Input
Amino acid sequence: MAIAKRARVLGNALGLTINGQDYWADISKYELVPSDSDKETLTFADAAAGGGAGKWTLKVTAIISFETGSFWDMVWANTGKEVPFILAPMGNKTATASKPHFKGKVKIGVKPALSSEAGDEKGATFEVEWNLIGEPEKVTQTS
Output
């Protein structure tokens, strides 16, 4: 019996669109992460309102660039705003069943950090962690 090899998510392609603008060239790492509900006691009313589902966050590590249109520049200009995002882990422009996209809305947190180290030849980076508004949607060509 032949064993089928599964397509993997590799670190050589990414599509990350925020508020209609693609930022894949600025991103070095991403995570779309669920967490358990932080409520100690969940009531029936909380559960009925979807309160027990937990929260999702989008974590991103990106280069620091002051160029107009860079990810750092966008975060600086849009602190506190709720914006739509589309994450394409396989880097494909059109979602398919085997290469889905994940979309939703995030609230951009605080202004981005600024740091560097003497002799750093790779370039400075910064990290953000934003809360999603609700849950992300898995998008395929049929959804």
